[in-house]
Amino acid sequence: MIALIGATAPAVAQQAPASQPMQRVEITGSSIKRLATEGALPVQTISVEQLDKQGITNAEQMMRLISANGTGADNMTSGNNVFGADADRVSGGGSFASLRGLGPSGTLVLINGRRIAGYGLSGKAVDLNTIPLAAVARVEVLKDGASAIYGTDAVGGVINFILKTDFEGLQANASGNFTEHGGGATRRLQLVAGKGNLDTDRFNVMAALGYDNNSQLNSNQRDFANGYQPLRGLAPDTTGTPVANQLTGAGSALGTGFKRPGDNNTYLQAGLLSLQGKCDSVAGMQQYATSLWKNVTSPLRSTYSCSYDYGGDYVMQLPTERTNFVARGTFQIDPQNRLYAETVGAHTSSLAILTPAQISTTLAAGNAYPVGGAYYQNLSAYIPTFDATKPILYKWRAWPLGDRTQKYSTDTARLLLGGEGTIAGKWDYRLDLSHSFSRTTTDLLDGYAYTKPLYAVLGSGIVNPFAAPADGQTQAAMNALESTKFYGRLQHGKTTLTQLNGSVSGEIWQLPAGAVSGAIGTDLRRESYQFRQDVDATQILLAPGNANQERVSRNVKAVYAELAVPVVKDLELQLAIRRDDYSLIGATTNPKVAFSYRPTSWLMLRGSANKGFLAPSFGQLYAGRLNQELPNGVSDPIGCAAHPGDARYCAIERLDYFSGGNPNLRPETSKQGTLGFIIEPSANFSASVDYWAINVKDRILNRTPQVVLANAAALPEYIHRDAAGVIEYIDAGWINAAGLKTRGADVGLRGRGSLPGGYRWNATLDGTWTQSYQFAEFEGQPYVEYVGNFYTRDIYLRWKHNATVSVSKGPWSILLSNLYRDGYKDQLPDAGKSTPPAGFNPHVASYTTFGLSTTYAGFKGTTITVGIQNLFDRDPPFTAHNVDEVVGAGWDPRVADPRGRALSFDVKYKFF
């Protein structure tokens, strides 16, 4: 029998005394209770001890220990963004899992094997901030599709947080993690209390309370966060600066363009500091790097402009507070049956802090700087055609308004009542009813103003847009700006989930090779979602806004069955099938077959093949549809080719399009499988390799009308035409795009043994090698390989691993940990339109860090751990990428931790 040393089984089961029979347990990925050492599926188990020794204080940090998790923008740092590809992300203010890089909605997150409500603002995935680590006993990560067992969301895999269930005593825990270079500290307090022994007292009650606090970390606290390194191919492409640059435009002081003496080129922007060669006299500003932006307009637009390193003025770790609570009561009716009640609650508050609003003024908006204003900036000395009798148009980073600060508050709770046990000594059952909700609010704390009143104040000339922040504004100007600002509740959303789940499992009949075990169960759910704007966000400059979503609900009815069949000696099949019927999107049936084969005592072969599906979320289906127009002059690529010169096709006016939800979305579907082996040549060593492959069709992505129109041949169902083929309107927003194909292998190594002097050693490695990740934006387009290449969603690295080596003797133990992330091809400056500078390195270096911790448990009831994370103070590798589409100026938070070297401590004390 292969012990697997933690590769597939929960640690608690492995450590059962030899005198006791191995307890049958339900392992993630199966509904059949069995010995923990059995199983055909790749399950990684993470203990609380591992988290404490590596300075992990929350579930988001824990995801770094899972090499199968995507290297994506699903953390709070990357989610603090307003650009580009975040249309495909879940929402700001949360942290999410993304196994295999399939996105948060493709990973199922469970607590004690049961679902909880998704994030309140989007109704999609579970926010990891709400997971109560104070009461977690272990975490099981299933690295295989599991729709045949759990239904939707389990395409990439399952993360199951298993709570303590029978704790006795009172234990307090204090943790801290403090960086050497300042900022980004984390703190945690926990209290767990329990009373009653199920065997002797027939009851147990337990409660756990946890509090976490993460301090803010700013880009200006780390030298590597620098978006202006032009010799290496990195410089910001923005002229929205704290000291305004002037713009050209009809009726403005610069007219429609200007020339410099002795220069025949016509330029479109000008800044006094740039003309004087003094851009860098203001913190965060530099001369615009025209050498890096050689497309058609940038040099002529910005040669005489300053730029602003907004990426170097970013918040790299959001200030966050979390409070989690768990209470559980268990009553043992008799030795075979028990009842239990469980409540889980969490409150999370975080601040998303963005740079001040960027404003481009126009005559039509009435916000141009007026002639005769006290701060009118006359550039006649530098530009002979400057017309001081006309107002000034300008682009400005409106620093007097303050940083745009959004507060996300999430309240989550789940109440569960259930019973489990054994009937007639052979049938295991479990039945429970639960209700959970997640409510998230967004409040604007600073940096936002009502657009029209703000523009009126700017147009009055009382505000000086040409003043540096160090020079300040007059009190009258600040009072005028303050009168335009908005403070308060912007939006809120709520999801609810009511679930009745029941299953029965046990041995059905005997075959020559052993007993056939089976399980049958049902899963009945009612899900709902609502989203409301508390104010009209369109009236507030740059405020995030979505159309209201009235409360919508859907019912899900599912039945599932599973068999564990011993075909011949040492060969077992796991067969599973599940049918889900959604009241709004229809029914789907998903099977799974898996096997485990032990030809010898030291070798096990295993594999699986299954189908999966991902149901569209409420937001994707029913988010308010907005009717909008594209600018005049849009061309229909199909119609214009057939009718050249016809304005109805080649220069369309008033082309309508819809964005938002799409009630006609189909579920994403997948076909996937694994094939691997585990070897254990001795009781002290095991190695596992599991090859996996996933194909996904009908991926649900958010697309603009321009993208849909540009791919008209591939997306005809989203372009609505009249009888003559003239486009009437376009469906944009959420659509079913083509698909993806990904392959790779997970590697696990476990070793342990003895050293001279009574020492014990233990070593682990969990790694993921991604052979291929190919993605096609739309049906009919070729699949493009993304492994090892920069991408605005996930970065698909060739190799990732987490490894540990520990040595222990008596009450002492020492742990050395290592995290490694492979390098990749960098993003090309200017999207490859210009020749990169000589100092540009097209390859981003690998990232590796080490941690060292010492634990002492020699005092009665006390365990003390002191550690250093990022032992050698490794900076994130340089990348020639700024914050557009993905946060990070000169570094990438999807790959690296910006905190640097940090000292951590963890103290546990058990009073009794």
UniProtKB/TrEMBL annotation:
UniProt KW Transport keyword: yes
Ranges for domain TonB-dependent receptor-like beta-barrel: 383-871
Key words, A-Z: Cell outer membrane, Membrane, Receptor, TonB box, Transmembrane, Transmembrane beta strand, Transport
Subcellular location: Cell outer membrane
Residue stretches making up the TonB-dependent receptor plug domain: 41-158
PANTHER family (UniProt xref): PTHR47234, TONB-DEPENDENT RECEPTOR
Membership in a protein family: Belongs to the TonB-dependent receptor family.
Name this polypeptide is given: TonB-dependent receptor
